[in-house]
Amino acid sequence: MLSGGSDGVIVLYDLENSSRQPYYTCKAVCSVGRSHPDVHKYSVETVQWYPHDTGMFTSSSFDKTLKVWDTNTLQIADVFNFEETVYSHHMSPVATKHCLVAVGTRGPKVQLCDLKSGSCSHILQGHRQEILAVSWSPRYEYILATASADSRAKLWDVRRASGCLITLDQHNGKKSQAAESANTAHNGKVNGLCFTSDGLHLLTVGTDNRMRLWNSSNGENTLVNYGKVYNDSRKGLKFTVSSGCSSEFVFVPYGSTIAVYTIYSGEQITMLKGHYKSVDCCVFQSNFQELYSGSRDCNILAWVPSLCESVPDDDDETSTRSQLNPAFEDAWSSSDEEG
C-alpha cells in the first residue's frame, strides 16, 4: 500500500498479516523520506499505483508537482510542474488507449498530463473555481468526473473539443433557474467524488453536509437520502465504495469516524470508531475485502468485515445465535449502537 503524509513523505507498506494474529501492525517496506533528494516539499495529497503495473506509482502535492516514480529504485521517472497547488490526481483504472493523468489544482482548469509524452496535453475548461477532486470512470476510459468549489460537478468526454458532457443538477432541471449556468450539484463546495465499482453511478459529497448519488449516463440525481453527512474539509475529501459485497457500501470520513452507508438505500449501517483525530481519506481493497483509513492522528487503520461463526445446534436458545469471531470485533457490522 502507498501512503502520503502532510510532511511530504511517501511510505510503502506490506499488507500481509504474516503473524496470523487478529491484531497486527503492517510493516513499512520502504519510504521516500525527508532526506530523499526528490521528496515532496509540502503535504502529499494523492498517491496512486500505475493501474497496470506496481513498478510505477504517482504522487501529487501542495508543492505544485505531480511526480512519477520507479517503485524499484524509488527514483523520479518524470515530474509535472503546475502554477497552482495540486489537490487531486487520478489515472484511469481501465484505459488501454491513453495514459492521461487528470489533475485538479487551485486553478479552475482541469489538466490532463500524458505519461507517454511527458507533457500536459490538454486542458478542460468550464469550472469557475478550484478543482477539489477528479475521478475517471471505471467503465469508460474517456469519461472523467470533476468536482469544484464552484458547487458544480461535471462529467467530461476527454475526446471532445468542448469536453463537458453533463453538469450535474441537484434539482434535475425542475427549478426555474435551471439554465446551464445555474446547475449546481451541492449548495457548497463539491469536494469529493467516487464512481460505484460498476461505473453506472457517481457519488459526490459537499460542504453542505450532503452526499448525492447520480446516474452517470444521464446525470440524473437519484434523490437517495443519506441524511446529514458531516463535511468541513477545506480540501478534497477522499471517500470510497465497496466492491464485491452482496449489498454495496460507501465509506465516508465523518470527523474522527467513518460513516458506512448502503449506496442505493441511503441507510447508515454504522460508524467506524478507532481514530482520535479527523479522518482525511479511506480506500477499499476488494481482494482482501478490507478498508484502510488515514487520519490526522498519524495512523492508518485497517478494517475487516465481521465474520460470524455458527455455534453448534443445541436446544439451548442462547447458543443458536451466531457468535462473533473475536478477531473481527472492531468491524463495521458489529455495532451495538446502531440507530
UniProtKB/TrEMBL annotation:
What's a GO biological-process term for it? response to UV
Region Disordered, as annotated, extends over 312-339
Keyword Repeat set for record = yes
Q: Which domain of life is it from?
A: Eukaryota
Q: Where are the WD repeats?
A: 37-79, 124-159, 183-224, 272-303
Return any one Pfam family short name. WD40
Intracellular or extracellular location(s)? Chromosome; Nucleus matrix
Record-annotated membrane-spanning stretches: none
Q: Which InterPro entries match?
A: Rad28/ERCC8/Ckn1/ATCSA-1, WD40/YVTN_repeat-like_dom_sf, WD40_PAC1, WD40_repeat_CS, WD40_repeat_dom_sf, WD40_rpt
What does the entry list under GO cellular component?
A: chromosome; Cul4A-RING E3 ubiquitin ligase complex; nuclear matrix; nucleotide-excision repair complex
Alphabetic keyword roster: Chromosome, DNA damage, DNA repair, Nucleus, Phosphoprotein, Repeat, Ubl conjugation pathway, WD repeat
Q: What is its main location?
A: nucleus
UniProt entry tagged with the keyword Phosphoprotein: yes
Pathways per UniProt: Protein modification; protein ubiquitination
Q: Which SUPFAM superfamilies match?
A: WD40 repeat-like
Q: How does it assemble?
A: Part of the CSA complex (also named DCX(ERCC8) complex), a DCX E3 ubiquitin-protein ligase complex containing ERCC8, RBX1, DDB1 and CUL4A; the CSA complex interacts with RNA polymerase II; upon UV irradiation it interacts with the COP9 signalosome and preferentially with the hyperphosphorylated form of RNA polymerase II. Interacts with ERCC6/CSB (via CIM motif); promoting recruitment to lesion-stalled RNA polymerase II (Pol II). Interacts with KIAA1530/UVSSA. Interacts with a subunit of RNA polymerase II TFIIH.
Q: What does this protein do?
A: Substrate-recognition component of the CSA complex, a DCX (DDB1-CUL4-X-box) E3 ubiquitin-protein ligase complex, involved in transcription-coupled nucleotide excision repair (TC-NER), a process during which RNA polymerase II-blocking lesions are rapidly removed from the transcribed strand of active genes. Following recruitment to lesion-stalled RNA polymerase II (Pol II), the CSA complex mediates ubiquitination of Pol II subunit POLR2A/RPB1 at 'Lys-1268', a critical TC-NER checkpoint, governing RNA Pol II stability and initiating DNA damage excision by TFIIH recruitment.
Q: Know the name of this protein? A: DNA excision repair protein ERCC-8
